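Hi there, hope your week has been kind to you so far. Do you reckon you could talk me through the fold, stretch by stretch? I've dropped the whole record in just underneath, so have a look:
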Amino acid sequence: MRHVLLISYTFPPENVPAAARAGQLFKFLPDYGYQPVVVAAPLAGWGKDDPSVHRVPAGNGRMTSSLAATAARWAARFFAPYEDRWAWVPYATAAAADIIKANAIDSIFTTSPSLAAQFAGLWLKGRFGLPWVADFQDPVRDNPFRTRRWFYPYDALIERGFFRWADHLAANTDTVAAAWRARYPQWREKISVLWNSYDPLEPIATGETARRPERVLAHIGSLYDGRHPRQLLESVERLKIEPSCARIKLVGPIAPAVLAEHGALFERVRHSGVLTYGNRVVSRDEALAETAGADYLVLLDVNEKNASFQVPSKLLDYIRVGKPILAYTPTGSPVERILARSGIAHTTIDPLAPPEISDRKLLEFLRLPPETRPASRWFVETFSARTQARIVAGLLDAVLQAKTARAGLALERNRR
């Protein structure tokens, strides 16, 4: 059994999408010959972890790490346009260095967000020279939610640094991978796709919903930045949809900026009886129960740039539940292509579609029977965490083989 150092700022049971990748790999990589040793951030209120999971900083930490973290925190205030958690990197690298020295670590796998994990991987690569696979669940330069103007090209510089030194790069969609290969043709051979995945061992409710006269359309998850239901709510207003016909339920927290910009629209539709929202964080179990209890599911793959790079992680839950899906997503996006092969009834609406098309498609969608369908075999196999763990094991095998080959060539040159 080989050992891989897995660095992720978030890790289960933290209830955020970014934690799922690390948790799933920790569970399934041993089936393919790799035992992960995890370095992650602390989780408030959480008790004892598996012995192979190291949460840092633990207690007060080392004085040198604390001083470095303070310096990183101050540097980030002036030189980082985003909260990439620079201050965590000294703690992560110190813990990782101890693990590498005390264990037979063969390779490093980092996953983000947060980019702190990638900064840690970059430092460890320089220090120890171990093969390093960098996995980006969100892209850097192509991330439609990283839109701040800055006095120097922060994203471009750090992305190039990661790409230059990582032995392999994993993109979260095929669209992102294609953009990377076009931007960095010199490194195209070390770019692969690693889709977000679902845990095949996690039970998920399916079946018929409760009988009721109206249809419930549920969106499960956070609303933030450019990800909001304005297009849907405006169609509801124009079409004068009554609550006896359909109700929209927003489950999850709503960023203050979204309410500040669209609060009047939210209130008008809420006052009509069509919209309800709780604006609070919900547990994983509650989110899955709300997903299964809805008649229809709403996916908002929207952002200010109308970019079509991402696949919201909730799409995997939606498809597994099997209810009809109304997706606001750019034409030709990864979401649209996945839905087309998913086996699930769905309607897609481009965020740039004119009002008359948005309204017509919404009415067509509401005519769909709220029946549950099984996901296609393609979806089940492609997006299973077992499949993704097998792919990661293959990537680790490849970078380790390349290291062995380089060592053999160096030895042969020295003999000459």
